Amino acid sequence: MEDLNLTIPFLSAELTTEILSRLPVKSLLKFRSVSKSWLATIANREFIKMHLSLSANNNNKYKEEHDTHHMLILGINEDKWNFKECTLSSLFFDSVTEAFDLDSPIKDATESTYIVCSCNGLIFLVRSSKSSILWNPTIRKYSYFPGFRRRWEKTYARYGFGYDEIHNDYKVVGIFHAGSDSGGDSDDVEIQIYSLKSDVWTNVDGSYRKKRLNGSCLFTTWKLHWNTNTTTNDRIIVSFDLGNEKWETIEKPSYGEGEWDS
Amino acid sequence: MVKLKSNDDKEFEVEEAAVIQSEMIKNMIEDGCATSVIPLPNIDSKTLIKVIEYLNKHINMGKAAETGEEDDLKEFDEQFVNMGWEELFDVIMAANYLNIHELMELCCQSAADRLKNKSVRAVREMLKITNDLTEEEEQEIINDAPWAFEGPEIDDTVN
């Protein structure tokens, strides 16, 4: 990997990278201070990608920690938001599941906050003050997204967050319907996409998306997925491909006469 | 049987079924380039003996699950990586050169596990790395994530 001139006297840069990529994040943060070359290796974008893919596809039989799926729990304690996490395997297999505290960027619970979506260990949070936060609990860092001027003051807003593999970029999609939260479908839709790489919001043609989306977003198979508003009796799931920016719909099964899903 | 020659001119005979765990040698055999002795200019005899020991033990890896020898293999692997840093790195380099995926995994993970909880000072000393960061640069890294430098697991011993 590049000409980093690693100083392990016994090992080439390539093999040092092989070993470092198998270390947990806490160790890597610590070992950035071993030497200049270790710092350069660990901060390298390609290395970070390699580390993520190794940890996510952790089927290494020599490694004991297999838990790559976690559940994030947002709770409230007096007037403070309380984030906890537990591993999915613990939920299934342990008699008692222990939840661990996460040091969150948001504490003040007087303002409503919701978890929009998570992807590759990154969590996207939106607050009622319209500020949105990208949080990486593993390295305990977060950053605020820059705001942008919305077309309407009052909107019904839905967000999505995911990874665009084609452009190697993380993206936020914001869908804003004119009017208050309680209104029905409206033609006045504004769709904005934020690219983490270029740090700008861009406007996308939203004329297609008149139906309101419901609930939180799910990122999987490189697409964002939302449920549609159930009161409209619209049995579809709407997906947005972050790579080619195309909308698609998936029909939900029929539940029978007069029955709705929620 | 396949003959391998280390860089200090020692020859070793290995069963073909064992040696083809090395992608590199497997390709050579398939291409008909392994008719006589295969010279391995990057590997000394001491390291090659270790590698062959691994290959022979893992010869029927696929069958291990059926015959209940998995635990036995696991125990062998644990014992196998119980070596000094220099020796471990020699095996990693050999496994990389010979392209033996499983051996590479085993040794790199073992190295990572040994380093994981070590203090920065201990890592430098164990791996004979000179610290070329300035005091300010080092402090900046610590300030960026002070929690990574704390915790009961942090081990300052050198071994």
UniProtKB/TrEMBL annotation, chain A:
It holds the Pfam family FBA_3. InterPro entries: F-box-assoc_dom_typ3 (IPR013187), F-box-assoc_interact_dom (IPR017451), F-box-like_dom_sf (IPR036047), F-box_dom (IPR001810), SCF_F-box_component (IPR050796). Residues 11-50 form the F-box domain. It comes from the Eukaryota. Signal peptide: none annotated. Gene3D superfamilies: 1.20.1280.50. NCBIfam families: F_box_assoc_1. This is F-box domain-containing protein. It comes from Capsicum annuum.
TrEMBL record, chain B:
The keyword Amino-acid biosynthesis does not apply. One of its GO terms (cellular component) is nucleus. GO terms for molecular function: cullin family protein binding. Keywords: Ubl conjugation pathway. Pathway: Protein modification; protein ubiquitination. InterPro entries: SKP1 (IPR016897), SKP1-like (IPR001232), SKP1-like_dim_sf (IPR036296), SKP1/BTB/POZ_sf (IPR011333), Skp1_comp_dimer (IPR016072), Skp1_comp_POZ (IPR016073). Residues 1-59 form the SKP1 component POZ domain. Residues 102-148 form the SKP1 component dimerisation domain. It comes from the Eukaryota. Belongs to the SKP1 family. PANTHER family: SKP1 (PTHR11165). Part of a SCF (SKP1-cullin-F-box) protein ligase complex. Involved in ubiquitination and subsequent proteasomal degradation of target proteins. Together with CUL1, RBX1 and a F-box protein, it forms a SCF E3 ubiquitin ligase complex. The functional specificity of this complex depends on the type of F-box protein. In the SCF complex, it serves as an adapter that links the F-box protein to CUL1. This is SKP1-like protein.
